[in-house]
């Protein structure tokens, strides 16, 4: 059995408790300054009374420092957990054990550490039912990518590959590559080979659409086709999305072209896990 525990609000004890383990006065002063820096809401600055504002760059660091105590207390009880910042998985063998471990975890977090557990985002589930963790979708023996993460990634790609731009495709590829490399690297252990191939094909198609838009007329397209050995004259609408997927356009702008301008091949990072040790009994 597995269950998620999520919580978002740190208590005002954060800095005071960590003072016992952090002796560098400059670091403590910097942390206090960042915690009291306030937040912008609708363009208006507001002071923060307690805790670290959500989204603050220092929040993950504070979470790891502060929650080390939680890790140690759970470990001392022989309870297996996986934690990244304030996202936690706790493992058990039975439903009864899961309820017991959940009660222990909540007691440590809320009573000992003065944190607030979000009950709405806390649940007990089985591996067969599946769950999401850090953008991954884990179900049975399969590890996939969460749909919202895939949608977000495609949204970023679309933002960089708008058809009506005049930026040279080589320059667009330079901007795209860090995004593609980061996505592929993060999800390289996922069973995603066919999805990565599909994404790469879709990205190449979007780049072809940009090239067609920049060529403007079929004159340039037919000139390129003749040089490549294509004999028939082509007549299509250069600014239409469907034109970028025609046989003639793929012939004029082959996959080899994108290799030559160094478009990152996401499938080269694919390295799926064959076993998941953390899930083994």
Question: How does this model look, in words?
Answer:
The chain has 281 residues and is of the alpha+beta class. The chain is elongated, with a radius of gyration of 26 Å. Strands 4-5-1-6 form a four-stranded antiparallel sheet, covered by helices on one side. Helix 6 packs antiparallel against helix 7. The chain is built from eleven helices and nine strands. It folds into two domains: 125 residues, Alpha-Beta Plaits (2-Layer Sandwich), CATH 3.30.70; 123 residues, no CATH class.
CATH class of the largest domain: Alpha Beta
Briefly note the CATH topology name of the largest domain.
Alpha-Beta Plaits
Shape: elongated
Sequence of strands across the biggest β-sheet: 4-5-1-6
The total beta strand count reads 9
Order of helices and strands: EHHEEHHEEHEEEEHHHHHH
Number of domains: 2
Biggest beta sheet summary: 4 strands, antiparallel
In round numbers, the mean pLDDT is 81
CATH architectural arrangement of the largest domain = 2-Layer Sandwich
What is the share of helical residues?
A: 40-55%
Number of helices: 11
Low-confidence stretches: 1-20, 274-281
Strand content: 5-15%
**How far apart, in Å, are the first and last alpha carbons?**
10 Å
Structural class: alpha+beta
Cα-atom Rg, whole angstroms? 26 Å
GO molecular function: RNA-directed DNA polymerase activity
Protein name: Retron-type reverse transcriptase
Domain Reverse transcriptase: 1-138
Pfam family, one: RVT_1
């Amino acid at each position: 059995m597995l269950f998620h525990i999520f919580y978002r609000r740190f208590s005002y004890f954060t800095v005071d408790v960590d003072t016992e383990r952090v002796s560098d006065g400059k670091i403590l002063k910097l942390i206090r300054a960042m915690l009291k820096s306030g937040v912008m809401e609708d363009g208006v600055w507001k002071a923060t009374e307690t805790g670290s504002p959500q989204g603050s760059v220092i929040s993950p660091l504070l979470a790891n420092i502060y929650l080390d105590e939680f890790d140690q207390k759970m470990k001392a009880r022989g309870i297996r957990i996986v934690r990244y910042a304030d996202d936690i998985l706790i493992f058990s063998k039975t439903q009864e054990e899961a309820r017991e471990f959940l009660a222990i975890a909540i007691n440590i977090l809320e009573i000992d550490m003065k944190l607030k557990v979000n009950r709405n985002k806390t649940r007990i589930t089985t591996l067969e039912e599946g769950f999401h963790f850090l953008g991954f979708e884990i179900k049975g023996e399969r590890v996939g990518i969460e749909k919202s993460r895939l949608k977000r990634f495609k949204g970023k790609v679309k933002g960089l590959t708008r058809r009506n731009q005049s930026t040279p495709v080589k320059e667009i590829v330079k901007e795209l590559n860090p995004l593609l490399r980061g996505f592929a690297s993060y999800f390289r252990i996922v069973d995603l080979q066919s999805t990565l191939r599909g994404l790469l094909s879709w990205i190449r198609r979007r780049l072809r659409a940009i090239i067609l838009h920049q060529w403007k007329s079929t004159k340039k397209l037919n000139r390129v086709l003749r040089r490549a050995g294509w004999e028939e004259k082509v007549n299509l609408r250069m600014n239409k999305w469907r034109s970028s997927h025609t046989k003639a356009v793929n012939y004029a702008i082959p996959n080899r072209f994108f290799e030559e301008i160094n478009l990152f091949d996401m499938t080269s990072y694919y390295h799926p896990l064959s076993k998941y040790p953390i899930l083994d009994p």
